[in-house]
Amino acid sequence: MASNPLTDLELDRPGMDAAGWRRSLSNHLVYSIGKDPLTATQRDWFYTAAAAVRERLIERWMETMRSYYRADTKRVYYLSMEFLMGRTLMNSVLNMGCEPAFRTAVENLGLDLAAIREIEHDAALGNGGLGRLAACFLDSMATLGLPGYGYGIRYEYGMFTQKIENGCQVEHPDNWLRYGNPWEFPRPEVLYQVKFHGRVVEYADAEGRLRHHWVDTDDVMAMAYDTPIPGYATETVNNMRLWAAKATRDFDLGYFNEGNYIKAVEEKNESENLSKVLYPDDTTEMGRELRLKQQYFFVSASLQDILFRYAKHHEGFDALPDKVAIQLNDTHPAIAIAELMRILVDGHGLDWDHAWDITRRVFSYTNHTLMPEALETWPVPLFERVLPRHLQIIYEINHRFLREVTHRHPGDHALLRRVSLIEESSPKRVRMAHLAMVGCHKVNGVAAIHTELMRQTIFADFHRLWPDKIVNVTNGITPRRWLNQANPDLARLICARIGNGWLKDLEQLKRLEPLAEDAAFRQAFGAVKQANKRRLAEAIAQRLGIAVNPDSLFDVQVKRIHEYKRQLLNLLHVITLYNRIRAHPSGDHLARTVIFGGKAAPGYRMAKQIIRLINDVADVVNHDPLVADRLKVVFIPNYDVSTAQDIIPAAELSEQISTAGTEASGTGNMKLALNGALTIGTLDGANIEIRNEVGAENIFIFGLDTEGVTALRAAGHDPWWHYRENAELRQVLDMIRDGFFSPEEPARHRVIFDALTTGGDPFLLLADYADYVARQQEVERVYRNRDEWLRRAVLNVARMGRFSADRSIREYAEVIWNVKPVRPRRRPRR
Ligand SMILES: *Cc1c(COP(=O)(O)O)cnc(C)c1O
């Protein structure tokens, strides 16, 4: 791949030119990695490159931290159970602005940069969109010079690796630390005690006030690991601090002295299990004790750390809301609200009302889902066992909150039941979203429609109580990773025409608009896409042994496998195309390659069934000589950030086809459009705002909108009616039912047929099928006009500026956090 000639901002610095890099690489190979160039492997060179890169970040990282300290600035703490970072090497090199020099140095050493960067393990401490959002936000906070810290868990095992065996998903552990993580700095001295279990003792203090002690606890230590987060073309390097669980002591001395060495070590392992593994569950919550403990573990350590940093500068807590903003990424860290109350009231003796005022001004919460089954609740008995004092505090918060509601709405008992932090089920459950709603000064949705639905549905009662609390901040993505890094050829083409200002100000892409009418530019733009398609086709041939036609329409649906995302609807269309080719083999069928990628939660049976059906359909279609290269179906295994970076630049059609009202925002939709794919999608999540930006004539919208969905559900959706009335659909469904794609086991996919028919088709695939197929036909009509397709693709790219994560972060900073950028001093020359 050609070099990326963007920014050379740092070239005036010693060590940042090609000669400096080369010296540094040679030195690090020997003195950091301890290898002789004669025997060095690609892996040795990757770790060498990482050492050279990280060395160049450290001074700026330290200076950034010093500048925050000097300015006594308000800091933002982004608390997230997940950070889906992907690979770091080239991202750091590009953000430092010295990719050409680095590349030259590597090549002059006779090394293969493409091979070296592939060695890096994809850091996947997250499931999907939510974790990737956190990663994009860290990049944007650093790029904007905002004092933003990521806080999370250093899982020993990240998101599982997906393999496909006999068409089925098989999960393998993601042992990402096996060869060591070159980006992290262990901080064995940054260690906090985290308590669990035990009981609460009441006592009267010197002034006779009732106080609480949490005693007889089981304790675990949290140890910090820091990772530098470089902004793009800036001195700012922020910090992500992840916590690992360590036993309070290495051994239980009691057992040790008894001579029971093994038992003594076992106890140590048990407590260290807390940060062992990421829960590979997307959107549906799991009621597992270990997960609750993970949440409290990282929240407790993070709050201790945040308050320690605050206390270096400040007496008392009155200034806390002026110095600290804590963003809760979903309800996973919402226990922080009760924890801060506990620290202030039990630990420091603040009055409840005073502590509550401070707490509310510190916290804000991002909601990511409206689906009731995904809203986190914890059984009260479990909560009481694990966090007895926090349960008491939540009861007290609830008591005072419900009293306030009663004053405002006397006699409305139904309202009290609806808004209570405690669900009156059996057993009772703690509603974490309600805790977050009550304990935060701002709560945001992640796309305009999602925020509006929050106000109208799940949080309608709260919205009436506090009409200013729920705000919208539409998600965004970082253009550094998702365009500059993932699609260097397109980045270069854009820079050649409008300069590189868009990398920090994505709205500047608007200046490409006139070029949509420029035939030469369209040609160049089309050539970039074609080269990306060819590269992906080669990778597919190599990895999966499927020959795809690089001139076919690359139709891409990559995201977690979930019924609401409707990969099955896409597949119904694929089978429809297949049947049309079979019915008219000599017809003029547009060649199409349908690419799927995505993981299913290991316990989500239907999602796994869908993966199997995709692979079964692929097997039949790809081997049918009648089809030839006019239709290919490809399931690319192990969709992660790195595979996303390979697939997205080659996509031409972006499938964003969730049932209206189910996808909070989506960010995959933004990545694909920014890389010049046209979207076929429903009026759901950020698709609506993408339509508003790119223009309705440059996007393929189909299907029911949220009102249509609500109305249909109210009237009663009858899948059998569609089955009877639509012959093409019926044929497709019958093939699935009768085992056309699994002749060796004809009943294999019967459950899918049943879900779509007798099961009531809860995600309304059959209701949207006809319109979807019609829209796909329009897609083909436009695609046959290459110039028109390219014109629309250029306009899509030109109009995606709004979906930069920089814009999202500016909105958070202004509307929710009230924080301002701090510019570190330029590093003195050595
Ligand atoms: C962006 C991204 C997602 C989110 O995709 P959606 O289409 O918004 O669901 C999931 N996984 C990975 C690896 C991503 O990069």
- Spans with pLDDT under 50 lasting ≥5 residues? 1-8
Strand elements, count: 24
Present as ligands are: pyridoxal-5'-phosphate
Number of helices: 33
What is the highest CATH level, the class of the largest domain? Alpha Beta
The secondary structure category is: alpha/beta
Physical arrangement of strands within the biggest beta sheet = 7-10-11-4-1-12-13-17-18
Distance between the termini: 34 Å
What global shape is seen? globular
State the helical fraction.
Answer: 40-55%
Largest sheet: 9 strands, mixed
Radius of gyration over C-alpha positions, nearest whole angstrom: 27 Å
Query: What is the average of the pLDDT values?
Result: 96
Mind telling me which CATH architecture of the largest domain this is?
Answer: 3-Layer(aba) Sandwich
Approximate strand percentage: 15-25%
Q: Determine the CATH topology of the largest domain.
A: Rossmann fold
Instruction: Write out the CATH superfamily name of the largest domain.
Output: Glycogen Phosphorylase B
